[in-house]
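Continuing the series of single-chain predictions for the mutant panel. This is the parent chain; the variants come on the following pages.
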Amino acid sequence: TGTLNAVQAARAIADGWARAAPTDQLVLRPMSDGGPGFVPVVAAGLGAQLREVEVLGPLGERVLATFALDGQTAYIEAAQACGLQLVPPDRRDPGRTTTFGVGQLVLAAIAEGATMVVVGLGGSATNDAGAGLLSALGAEADRALDSGGRSLARLHSVDIAPARAAVAGVTLIAATDVDNPLLGLRGAARNYGEQKGASPSECMDLDAALEHFAGLVGRRPDGKDPAVALGAGAAGGLGYALLQLGGERVPGIRTVMDILDLPREIADADLVVTGEGC
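Parent structure:
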């Protein structure tokens, strides 16, 4: 997305510090809130194995993505399959980008034996409510679900039962970088559409398209409406799709802090230097 990732930023800070205070002991703990960098940070913290798989990127091109496998738990970074960094600035359009590749990553993790899949959400170039992911998992509709958020407004029927069947018996966790719902003033399109390439009027149209899509999908079998849940709007609505599949939402930063045992690291330190993107 045009910035240093967490590993690069930590290394740059440490290099500068070491030049000024070469005898200090420096402990680097790159962080991620679920967005870009989630997989390498988690893999390093757990000593997990990395698996590489070819998936479709946000514009339908082939990209290489990795996920971390720790026993029967897989950690996936949505941004590796649909991230903003995969789309040149002059081609950014959240109305046509898809999350199909994220669904392919989920299937690849399940094929490797994962019974729990933690999906880090953030930094996406998409605004399709996870329709592409659902399509990759087998969801059906009267027109393609992997053509981006704009086309969702033209749907007349959606059946995500096949997608639910594809992940039956698998625990899904949406590790989100934000707690926005899917729709409205705090929703995926109205809050984050412009930074992904949409104009203000296009953001309103995308919000209406997501509302139409959510209305067709309906509530979960347990009667809950994922569209209003915290984190449903993460990664252009990918959180919504995972919640529709029975997933649970957790804060991505808390997931990483627990893996890295950050409270203990802080307690052992004399000085903590940290930062945040904007």
